[in-house]
Amino acid sequence: MANSRRRSRRNRDGARVEYAAPPYLTRRIRPYELLDEEGLQRLEDQAEWLLSEIGIEIRDDPVALQLFREAGASVDGERLRFDRGHVRSLCETAPRSYTMHARNPQRNLEFGGDHLVFGAAYGSPFVYDLDGGRRYGTVEDFQNFVKLTHMSPWLHHQSGTVCEPTDVAVNKRHLDMVYAHLRFGDQPFMGSVTAPERAEDSIAMAKIVFGEAFMRDHLVIQGNINVNSPLVYDYTMTAALRTYAAANQGNVISPFIMGGAMSPVTQPALIAQAHAEVMVGIALTQLVCPGAPVVYGSFLTTMDLKSGAPTFGSPESTLATLTIAQLARRTGIPFRCGGHLTASKLADAQATMESTNAMNCGVMAGANFIFQAAGWLESGLTIGYEKFVIDAEQCGALARVIQGLDLSDEQLARDAYTEAGIGNTFLGVGHTMRHYQTANFDAALNDNNSYERWTDEGSRDMQRRAYERWNRLLKEYQPPPIDPAIDEALLDFIARRKSSMDDAWY
């Protein structure tokens, strides 16, 4: 966990405690391996069968179809079919690891290998907090979540559309979102993918900050590309994908599949389908720009087969995540999965159970990038303020887990036994005094006090403590510095682009 930066927080007595927080995590525990070679090969064979016999469609994008035709795919109208091994070979130029550059170089990220990056939730039209309840998101909400991400020591990536700012016209809100990412935070982020021209605007704004020459050879922005499962890419996604790849910027290719709706209900079929879909997207990035950075993504879950509602944290989706992570590792391409996912409407016991199940399996599976790691509620329809700070703290606990055990002499603590002797407490020995602030992860939102003290302090539950936490954080927020000339250029770009088009609210 190189390039640690100093961060601080208040302890329970209100004193400010300084500690090191890394810009990204490095895994020191082995990923869990669910399947053996025979099982993995069977799933890859199923994916190859899908690509050769069933095929995959790219709709309304003749440019993408032509790229695949020229690469040797069989193209029948908008349907593509591939010989066995062909798609895998097209993905060979995708980089296995790379750096994503932040506005603050101390917060650059490493993708791939043993590295792990946590990012905020993405895509919610609604927001929730204890006082305001559920409501449509605004620009202010969007800015708030960027600020909260910036202040969290355990969130490394600002994500993209953390919530929809519905108080801005649909065709213009991407400009405000990208500006918020660039002005109110200084970590890596995602741009717009809802139209190719919005992707172009996102890249243009990044160039104002990073410089066009720098971006020719350095990754600074990504697009989150969702497959229109089953087995379809639409123009909006492929055109945005091509826009980012042509600029040598990043794409995160993520099938979003609920078993029984966008795939057969059984998990092996779902996993193989997701593998086939994502590999075609990765291949397209490489046909546009060989070597363009890309992430092998997945978002696989189950559904309630009685109601059709999505479900999260189920044992079946856990098995799917563990397995597709193994398939991704076989390609060598950095792997992304979902995070603290839940169908619950607020940060209650259901949210805790489902989110823990969904997040922990991604961490143990060996993911390199987990966004939706903080704030997700109501199957992604809502991002919650209280849920956000609770999830962010749990990211810190998981960061401690993947460090594994340090078996150094200092950690084995022989001097502590010598000093304390037999039958005596270790509380006052020198070893304890050297390590008491860092030996255990401090879950600052938890209340470990006596019942009497808890009662005297207002009997506040976790949601109320989280509510107080995020409000205090926003009051303490200080914007990261930015060159005033760059800020002025960004605002001028936004003003010119907005004035060039009428508001559209579709």
Would you mind describing this structure in some detail?
The protein is an alpha/beta fold and 506 residues long. The protein has two domains: 26-404 and 445-506, Trimethylamine methyltransferase-like (TIM Barrel), CATH 3.20.20; 415-443, no CATH class. 43% of the residues lie in helices and 16% in strands. The strands form five sheets. Strands 3, 9, 12, 13, 15, 16, 17, 18, 19 and 20 form a ten-stranded mixed β-sheet that branches. β15 (250-258), α9 and β16 form a beta-alpha-beta unit. α1 packs across α9, α8 (235-246) crosses α9 and α10 packs parallel to α11. The longest helix is centred in the middle third of the chain and has 22 residues, at 267-288. The relative contact order is 0.13. Mean pLDDT is 95; it is low at 1-19.
- The CATH superfamily of the largest domain bears the name Trimethylamine methyltransferase-like
Roughly how many Å is the radius of gyration? 23 Å
Highest-level CATH class of the largest domain: Alpha Beta
Decide which structural class fits the backbone: alpha/beta
On the 0 to 100 scale, the average pLDDT is 95
Labels describing this entry:
alpha/beta, 2 domains, 10-stranded mixed beta sheet, 4-stranded mixed beta sheet, 18 helices, 22 strands, 43% helix, disordered N terminus
